[in-house]
Amino acid sequence: MVYDWSGPSVSEFIGLLVRAEDLVARIDERLRKSPAAAGFVERAHFHDAVAALWIEGELVHVEDLVLHDAMMDVRTPTHELTRAHAVLRTRRRIFSQASDWALSRAGLSALVGRESAGPQGSEARLVERPGDAEPLAESDPTDDDEPVDELALQLAEIDAVLARSQRLLDGTTATNQSEIDAAIEPAPDSSNTGTVANIGQPAPIAARSERNELIMDADWDEEQRLAEWLELAGLPHGEATPLLTAALAWDAWEQIAPLQRQAWLGNLLAASALRRAGKTASHLFALNTGLRTVARDRRRARDRHTRLAAFLEGAAAAAEAGLKELDRLAMARVQMERRLRNRRSNSSLPALIELVLSRPMVSTGLVAKELGVTQRAALGLIGELDLRELTGRGRFRAWGIV
């Protein structure tokens, strides 16, 4: 993919680039010195996750995402809500790591493997969660030195049933228990199969045949596409401005489409490119919140200049919205901190202020859970801060900063 910068729109493009670079640098500098930076960063995670699903044509309410993140859902979570929560968790994970982690081979392998389908994705999720049980092959129920874990045995039986059902759906049957155990137990070298560490090498035939062809394209070589994207995303690093580097990485992801799932990951990686270059060292840029304001026809145009200009407009819009949000949070923080005068040292109001600043909305249950107080006490604390009620209802209410 070769970018030709000649054309009548070069001067206009340079103007967009300079304006976007200035706005992105300004918001990061203000965040570096703002006392409301922590709350802004956390709220940006929620808003950017919702915007990521909006770009894909799915509607997720930020209130539902806040409650789902706190495991306090008022209804059964929808598929769109769980996907938005996956974006939220991915943003938090990227921000918690080093600035160059997401664009490294190890980081990209972890991000891709967590949500990918098939045995590789399942094993990656097991590796990610330290609280999960060890694989069945490492435990011996007949060992007299250790007590038998009844729950582990029951889970093993469930795994056996699921494996048998999967084999029946695939058109094969298990003849004995050893075949079922072989289907459950991961192969010793499965962690090296189909990961970004092996990009550029064809996936083994067995790994490709295990993909569900009903929902996955068997001819879609994700490893090769990721290798191509990494090459394009790494070329301009150090040779172009940080925002132009991110724009090229974003455009390459949109055109190559490396993953059949997790299409939203490309926008997060573009934001990571800004953070790697030191442009947004204080936060992970909420790129999706700006791209949603740009028409889809311009974001997916055939002309590269139009696509890159749309990216720069989206980055500028996200930075402008972030500056306004930061002003609003700083003003709200000053107003709420005035109510802390003459308060006892063990008051829960300071913790409530931090919670309100870090969430788009709060409920009595959420406040009670986070602060360790009763719901009646939570209502009293909310009343003392004089927060605005957002729902207009008498029950199941929510409060926030408007």
From TrEMBL:
Domain DUF1612 intervals: 214-340
NCBIfam families, A to Z: RHE_PE00001_fam
Segments forming domain HTH DNA binding: 349-402
Protein name stated in the entry: Uncharacterized protein
Region called Disordered, residue ranges: 114-148
Xref: InterPro entries: DUF1612, HTH_DNA-bd, Y4cF-like
Source organism: Pseudaminobacter soli
Comp. bias intervals (Acidic residues): 135-148
Superkingdom field: Bacteria
